[in-house]
Write a structure and sequence with these properties.
The protein is an alpha+beta fold. 25% of the residues lie in helices and 36% in strands. It has a single domain, classed as Tetrahydropterin Synthase, Chain A.
Length: 129
């Protein structure tokens, strides 16, 4: 089965609630990796031999991350009411990417997961059902 990955990095700040206490606002370079996977092991490539166009995924990922870039997650919906943990950010981006791309990727592929690295050796991944 085929998968492709597209990565986009952006700077943003957040302040999460940890053990009931809100930590000070701080920034990260958030590295976001989108994984697109085949919907089946047979006929998973299109007529051009592609799972999907890397550029389409990259442009859409950048568009989704743009409101957060050089801003504070806590000030931007849905994170003005949702704790902006790496896990919640990954799920939000995965859901947004799927809403924008899954119809275009069908029937060969779908958004599989989003991984977020906010610090070296710290990775959160949301895999879509």
């Amino acid at each position: 089965m085929f998968t492709i990955q597209v990565t986009h990095e952006f700077c943003a700040a957040h302040s999460i609630i940890l053990l009931g206490t809100q930590e000070p606002t701080h920034g990260h370079n958030f590295k976001t990796t989108a994984t697109i996977s085949a919907t089946s092991s047979q006929n998973s490539l299109d007529d051009e031999g592609l799972l999907c166009d890397f550029h389409l995924v990259e442009q859409t990922l950048i568009q989704i991350c743009q409101p957060f870039t050089n801003n504070n997650f806590n000030d931007i919906p849905p994170f003005d009411t949702l704790n902006p943990t790496a896990e919640n950010i990954a799920k939000h981006i995965a859901d947004q990417l799927a809403a924008k791309l899954d119809a275009d990727l069908a029937p060969h592929a779908k958004v599989h997961s989003i991984s977020i690295t906010e610090a070296p050796n710290c990775l959160a991944t949301y895999t879509r059902p």
